[in-house]
Amino acid sequence: MADRAAGDARAGIALLRSAVERAVAGDCDQITRAIVEDVEEEARAEMRTHRVRELDTDKRLLYEIIQEAGDVDAGTLHARYEDRSQDPVARSTRRKYLGRLVEYELIAVEGSGRGKRYLQPEVED
User: Fold this and answer.
1) Do residue 107 and residue 89 come from a single domain?
2) What SUPFAM superfamilies would the database entry show (predicted)?
3) Phi-psi region of 59 (alpha: psi -120 to 50; beta: other; left: phi over 0)
4) Fewer C-beta within 10 Å: the chain N or C terminus?
5) Whether residue 83 sits in one domain with residue 40
6) Residues 61 and 109 in one domain
7) In terms of DSSP bridges, do strands 117-119 and 71-73 run parallel, antiparallel, or are they unpaired?
8) Per DSSP, what are the bridge partners of residue 117?
């Protein structure tokens, strides 16, 4: 289970919770590897939903712009953010927020500098 959580304690807890719920629902007295494998995708989806729900206003706006575009270059992202935000934060703060969204696995980033692009992350099978 620890390998599947990849060092992310919250992901590990979500995976364990889903596995326990599945085991109890199936009247099992132990959590098997098969149960963990069965609930892994569901647990990741729940974790993702929780992370999105917990985003503050500016991070949520950045996230929504990327979700709507699917793939957007940094300049366009910043321009859209500034158009839509009532009180835009500084570019340096936005870059920090975008880094957090990448850490949370809510978005992905490709390239660097002026060629940087933000996109929806690939979902693991």
Assistant:
1) yes
2) Winged helix' DNA-binding domain
3) alpha
4) C
5) no
6) yes
7) antiparallel
8) 73, 110
Q: Which of 121, 123, 125 is nearest to 70 (CA)?
A: 121
Specify the pTM: 0.77
- Please give the pLDDT value at position 41: 84
CB 19, CB 35: distance < 8 Å: yes
| Cross-strand bridge partners of residue 73 | 117
| pLDDT, averaged in runs of 10, over the chain (125 residues) | 61 84 86 86 86 96 97 96 97 96 94 92 68
Determine phi and psi for 116, rounding to 5 degrees: -65, 135
Backbone angles phi, psi at 80, to 5 degrees: -65, -40
- Pair (66, 36) in one structural domain: no
Say how far apart CA 116 and CA 118 lie, in whole Å: 7
Q: How many helices (H) and strands (E) does the chain have?
A: 6, 3
